[in-house]
Amino acid sequence: MLVRTVILFLVGFAGPAAAFCTDAAAPGVEWNRCLFDERNMPEATLAGAKIRSSSFKRANLEKADFTGAVGSRAKFISAGLRDARFEGARLNDADFTKADLRGVVFRKADLRRARFFRARLEGADFTGARLQQADFFDADLSGAVWTDGKHVCAPGSVGQCR
User: What angle do CA 113, 45, 137 make, to 5 degrees?
Assistant: First the structure.
């Protein structure tokens, strides 16, 4: 009888079930501290997802929707993210080193301290984005729309928007 009472007590206070890294891509999924390196997930719908400290190294995420996602310390190293959407996402300290970010929408995204080392950002849209302490070392920003939504980076803008 005591064991049954303890089990019922624990079940009653367990709270909501935790999400797992094996959960399918879906809006609002919780993939914190998960590894998705080299995965093929084009056009994945991950709006509002929680991806803190998750890794997407060399993953194919072309046209994926990360609108409103929260992903501090997420790693997108060498990932294919062409035409993906990160509108309103919070990606502090995210790492986009060598990522293909051509045509990506970062409107109103929080990208403070993000790393864009050698990333391809041609035609990306940073309108209203927060970029304090973001590092664009050797990143190609040709044709990117800058934070004011008006200035378009000149061809050959490498490392900074000119």
Answer: 25
Whether the Cβ atoms of residue 44 and residue 23 lie closer than 8 Å to each other: no
Tokens read off for 98 = 């060598």
Q: Are 138 and 119 in contact (CB under 8 A)?
A: no
* Contact between residue 49 and residue 30 where contact means Cβ atoms under 8 Å apart: yes
Distance spanning both ends of the chain, measured CA to CA: 74
**Does 12 have pLDDT greater than 70?**
no
pLDDT given at position 19? 57
